[in-house]
Amino acid sequence: MSNIDVVVENLLSIDGGLAAAIVDSNSGMLLGSGGTGVDLELAAAGNTEVVRAKLKTMKSLGLKDSIEDILITLGKQYHILRPVEKNEGLFIYMVLDKGKSNLALARRKVLECEQALTL
């Protein structure tokens, strides 16, 4: 089992975890994924555009900072996009059931998974 598979498995073990993926933001392609309820290939491509747009906006504003994570709150789900600090061009995409998850704990666990990711 590759490190990516282990990280995806760990992401899915988060309370309320529905789906998770490691995404190449240069191409929008999945490097690893798991879970159900979301078309992860489509979501990876779409969320790549979200990450790119935010980075472009930050550059336009002259912000000398980095994205920690991007949270999208839906009626029944949380979607977390977290760039992988040590592997520029990758991000973690995590889908959580809003009624079964603790957002603060989930963000912390996603950070731990990010730090464990090696390529």
Q: How is this fold's topology laid out?
A:
Layout: H1 3-12, E1 17-24, E2 29-35, H2 40-60, E3 70-73, E4 77-83, E5 90-97, H3 103-116
Antiparallel strand pairs: 1-2, 1-5, 3-4, 4-5
The SSE string, one letter per element, is HEEHEEEH
Radius of gyration: 13 Å
Strand order of the largest sheet: 2-1-5-4-3
Helix content: 25-40%
| Low-confidence residue ranges | none
How much of the sequence is in beta strands?
25-35%
Please outline the major beta sheet: 5 strands, antiparallel
> By helix and strand content, what is the structural category?
alpha+beta
The termini sit apart by 13 Å
Please provide the count of β strands.
5
DSSP summary: helix tally: 3
What is the average of the pLDDT values? 95
- Overall geometry comes to globular
Structure, explained:
With 119 residues, the chain is of the alpha+beta class. It is built from three helices and five strands, in the order αββαβββα. It has helices spanning 3-12, 40-60, 103-116, and strands spanning 17-24, 29-35, 70-73, 77-83, 90-97. A five-stranded antiparallel β-sheet has the order 2-1-5-4-3, with helices on both faces. α1 (3-12) packs antiparallel against α3. The longest helix is centred in the middle third of the chain and has 21 residues, at 40-60. The chain is globular and about 40 Å long. It starts with a helix and ends with a helix. 31% of the residues are buried.
Give structural attributes.
119 residues, alpha+beta, five-stranded antiparallel beta sheet, 3 helices
